[in-house]
Design a protein that fits this description.
Elements (H helix, E strand, L loop, with lengths): L1 H9 L2 H24 L3 H16 L4 H20 L5 H11 L3 E3 L6 H4 L1 H8 L5 E5 L2 H10 L1 H6 L4 E4 L5 H9 L2 E5 H11 L15 E5 L1 H7 L5 E6 L5 H9 L9 E4 L4 E4 L1 H11 L10 H15 L7 E4 L2 E5 L6 E2 L8 H9 L7 E7 L1 H5 L4 E6 L6 H8 L3 E3 L9 E2 L3 E3 L2 H18 L3 E4 L3 H13 L5 E2 L5 H10 L6 E4 L15 H4 L2 E5 L6 H8 L9 E8 L3 H18 L10 H47 L5 H19 L11 H12 L15 H23 L1 H34 L9 H30 L7 H12 L43
Parallel strand pairs: 1-13, 1-14, 2-4, 2-5, 3-4, 5-13, 15-21, 16-21, 17-19, 17-20, 18-19, 20-21
Antiparallel strand pairs: 6-12, 7-8, 9-10, 10-11
């Protein structure tokens, strides 16, 4: 009551928004005579002048009236279309970073031109996002004429382009493309090994066409790049055969308390002999070394019928806390395959997530986001909560005169379709065009068969050929046309009435079923009554429709039985209409909950993703990673010392054996850790002494390899380790998410548990990243001068997910030649020891 009174006094939020925009529209219109008098060259010269003003600090808001006036005049000259005042309003709303809801036929494609032109003046690029490749290509060519007339470059991202073509398209002032292409390019860029191979620039400003379809309907499905976890399973079996030949304590040591196992120096030499390789720590054999460690863990730390069982030819994990089997769950990092090889069952190849992101989190990365659609107001709450986007309903250019008839409800689907065919036949004979919407392909084919039996010519739309669809939709308004479509959202083509059709009543819309979302129904209705044209619509429903059957059947069925309906007799009643709307509202709320939950779970991953991608970009910039590596070394050393020693006890009570193992495993150090040697040393003194030894070893290796090779190695090892662990982490998080819902049975909030455990898993991954990077860096050996370049080339080839990368290459200094050192040769560090006993460990 009070709310309605306040609205009458102050107006709605939407009315206040439009009122604030009105003076800006007046300012644009006031400039039109002056701009119209400019020559083509003078009009084009405005772009350079505007850019100069922006560079000097003038805001885009201040520049808006002039830029919009120039863009409108360019539209007239380039494509023969002059934006109406309501289209100017829509353009201003888009520039403000809001959603413009504009009815079908109001010219949304032209509306985007003005805010795109204005925001492109910054030189940071503008993305226009469409629902399919056809619309991206069509709009980039059609509206591209306006941008090119004004001196801007236009690019288009569609499926099948290689990296060079994509990079050029993204470098343009305006880039058209689909939501999938933009999102996947972001993910692929963050799997590249060189900044020069990346295709996207920073995400500045995006206008999303059919914003409800892209940001809501498709938001339940995240973008995922996946691939096989291993190229071949034979390596697992090969490694498995050598593990039984390694001797406990002699070739490897096991710590059951910490559940770790490590090769000794003799074990490394024996494994090299068994595998037929000269140096297991050669960079080329990193993968081989990893497999040996995992196979060793499988044989020594994991017991059959304790940690896992073999059932039906599969290795099934046993939950260590409940003792229950966990089918479908797999150990990561190749461990599960090592167990399969150990047990002689089929070693399975996994399709592993390599990178993923939701549309919500991708589009929220843009500095400014806007959207346009014919139907967004029903989802205004979701746009506000998820994307912080306000919906502004733009008035139509001409008054809407479409007649929306009440729904007709039948008892059975067969009765409903018979009624639909009767109405189509009647209207077809009158010459009125009819557009029929169905919820799926099966229903459209069923209706098509019924029309064929009646001899009624018609067209059926499907999602296979967008070009053909646009042509059919464009012809759907001609006299007597009958068109069946499964979904009218995002067709991008107006239905223009043919000669004489307006006098017959215009286009008639028939809906054969209510969709789960009222918005989809409104999109179908919106195809009639464009730009002041006459038109009408009616929905035919039955109690057997999915929506009615699941959400509203009992109540409506009882009502229809009380009325005593006969076959083929419809019912029109406000209670039924209300029940249907309530059913749709419940489904919308349920779908919103699903999307919100997906986003809440992905927000956990998104924070982790940003940390990892930022770390990757720092690494591939090719800068000096020495400070990063030394920071890692200090952190790991501190953890090792704290784990094995205690400031409050004597050295003889410390875990000196464990300390020695960790120092050798990670840093390749073998200091004298006997109680006698540490008699007068406390924890702090030991830590400082060990740090000096680590620095000496690091500097010795840097001197041995040369600074150039050392920097390349640090870069290569960090990236390789980061990518490997990140892929495993994604797999672990997928598994965690799959089973987390069961926590609800234990009165735990699954989301809270996922956040807590996901954070712990991420911390563990970061810890492993430090240790693995240091372990490889302090043990790796370079035997040929071209090895780093070869590794770099292999690395870059791995990053190419489609077509040749093209473009520039990273320039590097010549690699210093190093003499190959044998294991029994004197160590080049000058220690006087044999190489294998010193730096070659």
């Amino acid at each position: 009551m009070i709310g309605s009174i306040l609205k009458r006094i102050f107006g709605t939020q939407n009315e206040r928004n439009l009122k604030r925009i009105a003076p800006i529209v007046d300012a644009i219109n006031a400039l039109e005579p002056t701009v119209r008098g400019l020559s083509d060259a003078d009009l084009r010269a405005k772009t350079a002048a505007f850019r100069e003003r922006v560079a000097k600090g003038e805001s885009l808001d201040d520049l808006l009236p002039e830029a919009f006036a120039v863009a409108r005049e360019a539209s007239i000259r380039a494509v023969g279309m002059r934006p109406f005042d309501v289209q100017l309003i829509g353009g201003i709303v888009l520039h403000q970073g809001k959603i413009a809801e504009m009815k079908t036929g109001e010219g949304k494609t032209l509306v985007a031109v003005m805010p795109v032109y204005l925001n492109a003046l910054t030189g940071r690029g503008v993305h226009v996002v469409t629902v399919n490749d056809y619309l991206a290509r069509r709009d980039s060519e059609w509206m591209g004429k306006v941008y090119r007339f004004l001196g801007l470059e236009v690019g288009c991202i569609v499926h099948g382009l290689n990296d060079r073509e994509r990079r050029e398209a993204y470098a343009a002032d305006v880039t058209y493309g689909t939501n999938n292409e933009f999102g996947f390019d972001y993910l692929r860029d963050n799997m590249k090994f060189s900044l020069n191979d990346m295709v996207q620039r920073d995400l500045h400003y995006a206008i999303v066409d059919e914003v409800d379809s892209i940001l809501i309907d498709e938001a339940r499905t995240p973008l995922i790049i996946s691939g096989p976890a291993e190229k071949s399973t034979e390596l697992y079996n090969r490694i498995n055969r050598i593990i039984p030949q390694l001797r406990p304590e002699t070739d490897y040591t096991k710590d059951e308390k910490s559940r770790t196992v490590a090769l000794t120096e003799d074990g490394v030499a024996r494994a090299e002999t068994l595998l037929g390789v000269e140096n297991l720590y050669d960079p080329r054999h990193m993968d081989l070394l990893h497999h040996v460690h995992q196979a060793l863990r499988a044989h020594t730390l994991f017991q059959k019928d304790v940690d896992y069982i073999v059932k039906g030819g599969k290795v099934i994990i046993v939950d260590e806390f409940t003792g229950r089997l966990m089918p479908g769950r797999r150990y990561s990092d190749g461990l599960h395959q090592a167990l399969e090889a150990k047990e002689g069952v089929r070693v399975e190849n996994e399709n592993q997530t390599l990178a993923s992101i939701t549309f919500q989190n991708y589009f929220r990365m843009y500095d400014k986001l806007a959207g346009m659609t014919g139907t967004a107001d029903t989802e205004a709450e979701e746009f506000a909560k998820i994307y912080n986007l306000e919906v502004v309903v733009i008035p139509t250019h001409k008054k809407m005169i479409r007649t929306d008839h009440p729904d007709c409800i039948y008892r059975t689907e067969q009765e409903k379709f018979r009624a639909v065919v009767r109405e189509i036949k009647e209207l077809h004979e009158q010459g009125r065009p009819v557009l029929v919407g169905t919820v799926n392909i099966d229903k459209s084919e069923r209706l098509s068969a019924m029309l064929k039996r009646e001899g009624i010519p018609h067209q059926v739309l499907n999602a296979k050929h967008h070009e053909k669809e646009a042509e059919i939709v464009a012809q759907a308004g001609r006299r007597g046309a009958v068109t069946i479509s499964t979904n009218m959202a995002g067709r991008g083509t107006d239905i223009v009435l043919g000669p004489g059709v307006a006098q017959l009543g215009g286009l008639h819309i028939i809906g054969t079923e209510r969709h789960e979302s009222r918005r989809i129904d409104n999109q179908l209705r919106g195809r009639a009554g464009r730009q002041g044209d006459p038109g009408s619509s009616r929905f035919y429903l039955s109690l057997e429709d999915d929506l009615m059957r699941i959400f509203a059947a009992d109540r409506i069925s009882g009502l229809m039985q009380r009325i005593g309906m006969e076959e083929d007799e419809p019912i029109e009643h406000r209670l039924i209409s209300r029940a249907i709307e309530n059913a749709q509202s419940r489904v919308e709320a349920q779908n919103f909950s699903i999307r919100k939950q997906l986003l809440e779970y992905d927000d956990v991953m998104n924070q982790q993703r940003q940390v990892i991608y930022e770390q990757r970009r720092e690494a591939i910039k090719g800068g000096d990673l020495k400070p990063v590596i030394l920071d890692m070394a200090e952190e790991v050393l501190d953890l090792i010392v704290q784990e094995h020693t205690d400031e409050k006890t004597y050295a003889e009570d410390w875990d000196l054996e464990g300390l020695g193992k960790d120092l050798f495993r990670i840093f390749g150090l073998q200091p004298d850790l006997s109680p006698a040697a540490l008699e007068h040393t406390n924890q702090t003194g030991l830590r400082e002494e060990l740090w000096d030894r680590i620095l000496e070893r690091y500097e010795s290796r840097e001197k041995e390899f040369g600074e150039t090779i050392m920097r390349d190695l640090e870069n290569y090892i960090l990236l390789q380790t980061l990518d490997s662990l990140w892929k495993d982490h994604l797999l672990n998080m997928d598994h965690l998410k799959e089973g987390i819902g069961l926590r609800g049975y234990a009165q735990q909030d699954p989301l809270v548990a996922y956040k807590r455990e996901g954070h712990a898993v991420f911390d563990d991954m970061i810890s492993r990243l430090r240790e693995e990077t240091l372990r490889l860096l302090f043990h790796v050996q370079i035997q040929r001068e071209d090895e780093v370049q070869t590794l770099r080339k292999e690395q870059e080839e791995q990053s190419m997910f489609y077509g040749p990368a093209g473009g520039g290459s990273t320039r590097r200094e010549p690699v210093k030649k190093t003499k190959k050192v044998g294991r029994n040769d004197p160590c080049p560090c000058g220690s006087g020891k044999k190489y294998k006993k010193c730096c070659g460990r």
